Each structure stands twice: as C-alpha cells, then as structure tokens.
Amino acid sequence: MNAKELREKTPDQLRDQLADLKKEAFNLRFQAATNQMENTARIRQVRRDVARVKTVLNQKAAAAAQPEA
C-alpha cells in the first residue's frame, strides 16, 4: 500500500482500514509473544501502514479545515 492509493480513499474508508490494521497488529503481537510468527517482517509493515494511513487522514483533515480563499 502506498500513499497515492490512500489519498484516493475517503476518510471513512481510511478509518476502516486503520481499524483493520490495528486489529492485525494486535494479532501479530500475540503471535510474536507465543512464538507462532511465520513472517516477522509483517509487524514492521503493519506499523508503517498504520502511520501512513494516519498521516493521510491528518492531511485530509487539515485540508478540510483550511478556509478557502
């Protein structure tokens, strides 16, 4: 997933995706704690995807709050 794809989504879609990513991160943490992890790099990918989604959401919020001249 890249930022360009995220910018094309609506804020509601981004919030849904953020919730899904957070659930996945939670499950991955449990897998890591119980030594059931197959792909350890997935934790890093999910964390970065969460940050990417949050960044785009904040950009959209800032753009919406800015008064139009």
* Helix fraction bin: over 70%
Write the H/E string, N to C: HHH
The total of helices stands at: 3
Overall 3D shape: elongated
Q: Outline the low-pLDDT stretches.
A: none
- Main sheet summary: none
Distance between the termini: 33 Å
Provide the β-strand percentage band.
under 5%
From the alpha carbons, calculate the radius of gyration and give it in angstroms: 15 Å
Overall number of strands: 0
SS-based structural class?
mainly alpha
Mean pLDDT: 95
Please tell me about this protein's structure.
It is a single chain. The chain has 69 residues and is mostly helical. The protein has helices spanning 3-7, 11-33, 41-65. Helix 2 runs antiparallel to helix 3 (41-65). The chain is elongated and about 55 Å long. Keywords: Ribonucleoprotein, Ribosomal protein.
